[in-house]
Amino acid sequence: MIGNNLKYAREELEMTQKELGYVFGVSQSTVAGWENAIDVIPFNKLIRFCNLYNYSLDFICGFTRKNTEYGTFKIDKVKIGKKLKELRTELKLSQQQIAADCGFFKSTYGNYEVGRYLINTMNIYSICKTYNISMDWIVGRTNKKSMNQ
After folding, report:
1. Beta-bridge partners for 146
2. Cross-strand bridge partners of residue 133
3. What is the DSSP string of 44-74?
4. What is the maximal distance between C-alpha atoms in the chain?
5. Number of helices followed by number of strands (H, E) in the chain
6. Is 32 helix (H, G, I), strand (E, B) or coil?
7. Which of 38, 55, 98, 147 has a 20 to 30 A CA-CA distance from 90?
8. pTM (2 decimals)?
């Protein structure tokens, strides 16, 4: 889904894969890989794309059909970790349960939650999809927590 929407947004911007690759310092074939779901766009590049071209993460990830422009924001892995912990606490789940539900290791999730590492695209996508949570909320772009609000 991310690849299809990334392609849609790039075409809406009337950019070629080569031009977008230049913006990110990657090859045209790397962009093609992202768009064709051969590779996953790194989360920092996904956020940069959304910042540069005024797209919401929820729109690009296919969680909503309508784009909402939130403006730019700075990636803060510690704040993202706090949002993940807030979500986990609210759902009354353990780190182990979230990791199991979303298909990754507890230690990996724990490192995200304390802000040691920036969460990767597929893991944040999995968390948002599994628990119906807005990715824009997790990164601090909106107060809307659920994708259905």
Report:
1. 133
2. 146
3. HHHHHHHHHHT--HHHHTTS-SS--------
4. 45
5. 10, 0
6. helix
7. 55
8. 0.92
